[in-house]
Amino acid sequence: MAIIFHEKDIYRQKIIRSKIKKWIAGEILRRKKVIGDINIIFTNDEFLREINKKYLKRNYLTDIISFDYSEKLIINGDIFISIERVKENAVEYNVCYDLELYRVIIHGILHLLGYKDDTDDRVTMMRKQEDLSIKRLDDLF
Question: Is a pLDDT exceeding 80 seen at residue 101?
């Protein structure tokens, strides 16, 4: 059971992996779930667009795609993150890159935990959970 970071077609991301893993683990345990195998893959727009086309039949850019393999209480999955999208989002939303990256990471984890963002109400709940999680991350730094 592990949370593992990978890079595909990009340079290594400068994040404090041990603290991010501790944060993710805390968010999973807080919801009374068990940490399984979670892969977080940092990649580029081109690679993520290909995944979007191949597996989701969508031909557009996105910042994150989550594949949920969770079983009952055990949280498993692959989270693909486009670093290019994260950088552009940070500029668009006028936030620092690190904050936007953490928000996208926890967004993927929340999807693995069962949160959806396919309706306005669910988007509101997802944002609320992201904000609460980010506050807890601040406590670790």
Answer: yes
d(CA 102, CA 42): 12
Confidence of residue 139 (pLDDT cuts 50, 70, 90): confident
CA-closest candidate to residue 102, choices 66, 130, 68, 141: 130
Number of domains in the chain: 1
Alpha helices, H only, the chain: 17-30, 45-56, 83-93, 97-112, 120-140
Q: At 34, which helix (H) or strand (E)?
A: strand 34-43
Nearest to 82 by CA among 111, 41, 38, 37: 41
Comparing C-alpha atoms, which of 80, 113, 98, 114 is closest to residue 6?
80
The enclosing domain of 133 has a CATH number of 3.40.390.30
Mean of pLDDT over the chain: 94
Place of tokens 């967004």: 107
By C-alpha distance, which of 100, 97, 61, 65 is closest to 81?
65
